[in-house]
Amino acid sequence: MKNTLRQVFRPGKFLAGFIIFAFILLLTVLYPLFNPGDPLAMIGLNNFTKPGTYVSVYDSLNVNRTFVFKLPDAAEKRIGSKLFPEDRETIKDYLTRLGLPEDSIDIDDTHDLMALWWNNYDPANQIGKTIAERRAYTALDNKLAGIFVSEDLEVLQYDPGTDEYVRKKMVTENDYVNVGDVANTIWLPLGTDNFGADMLKKLVSAIGTSLLIGLIAGVVATMIGLLLGLLAGYLGGIADDVIMFFTNLFTVIPGFILLILISYSIDQSRRGATTVAIVIGLTSWVWTTRSVRAQVISLRNRDHVNLSKLSGHSLPRIVVGDILPYIASYVVMAFILQISSAILAEAGLSMLGLGPKTTDTATLGLVMEWSIMKSAAHISGAWWAYYPVIIVIALISFSLNLMNTGLDQIFNPQLRD
């Protein structure tokens, strides 16, 4: 057993694939322990909140102890945060119309951009094709003048006894609070999705569900393919003809089309993750059957198999004891590929709206469907709602295929070094 494990982990491809897959698997197990709760719970009331750390404004104002800092670049950052991308584009548009070279204007450099504006803007210049454009430049100039005004903020609190608002505190531009002192903060590495749910939490839950679907579908497809392939390859004759007739029939019919038709015929309320996995498995056994049959045909007339026949051993014993061990490595590789194919099939089904029911579970395909098909995250620029899902699907498929290639290098004599 130890020698077998050493051989398995010797190829670099298998080891790399195993490390990637193990990391993803550990993430689905460990992350819910640190961040428990319903992954579909709506914690935000805004759609597609961008990634970051969020601090309760209310609680930050109630922090008793504040600190005073005078950071050298604080004013520039504050001004930069008030200068929106559309404002920067408007400045660039004005300056280029004024005659400045376009390559000399860097809209990302707040300091130089503001310097160019103050040195070149003249309200007397009638630049702009329409009155609305000229007014836009004037309004922008007024806004730019206003963002340099930094006044202290007065926080008022309602007093029910006097029915008046009384001053609670003054907040200056140099006041800071320690995030650790704020009662309510939340870290959202991947922001929230279109439903206001924690995207990372949902993604981890979706990975676990998709892996479960892949595992169930892989077991179903591999067991069916293994059973039919063993019977067809060993028995031959009429049994082989009947099995291969149905196998060829399913080969002619595109598997994904058949999967769509079966999924569509099942009511969504009854289309859970396990049901979808079984349906995928029932439509994915064909190529495993053909491959196992070819392997068994090459083994059924070996000397050790003929010796078992002469000894009067039963069919199950011959198949399980004398043939199956010789194709076990191939079955494992087929099982790995079935898992990968099932995860991709579920993603395709869910993108078509035929995935598991959406009320109590999340899969990688469903997250993609919610973000892209229903909420157009790619149009609104919410990359965190779909890019991580694409990357995870690619990593899972890539790792499983690396593992399969590594095993093939070990057990395929033609590929051994």
Summarize the structure in words.
By secondary structure, this protein is mainly α. It has three domains: 2-42 and 195-415, MetI-like fold, CATH 1.10.3720.10; 52-70 and 150-188, no CATH class; 84-146, no CATH class. Helices cover 62% and strands 6% of the residues. It has 17 helices and six strands. It has helices at residues 2-8, 12-34, 57-61, 74-82, 85-98, 110-120, 131-146, 199-235, 237-252, 255-265, 273-282, 286-299, 303-310, 315-351, 364-374, 377-380, 387-411, and strands at 52-55, 67-68, 153-159, 164-171, 175-176, 185-188. A two-stranded antiparallel ribbon has the order 1-6. It has a two-stranded antiparallel sheet with strand order 2-5. A hairpin with a 4-residue loop joins strand 3 and strand 4. Helix 2 packs across helix 8 (199-235), helix 8 runs antiparallel to helix 14 (315-351) and helix 8 crosses helix 15. The relative contact order is 0.14. The model has no long low-confidence stretch (mean pLDDT 85).
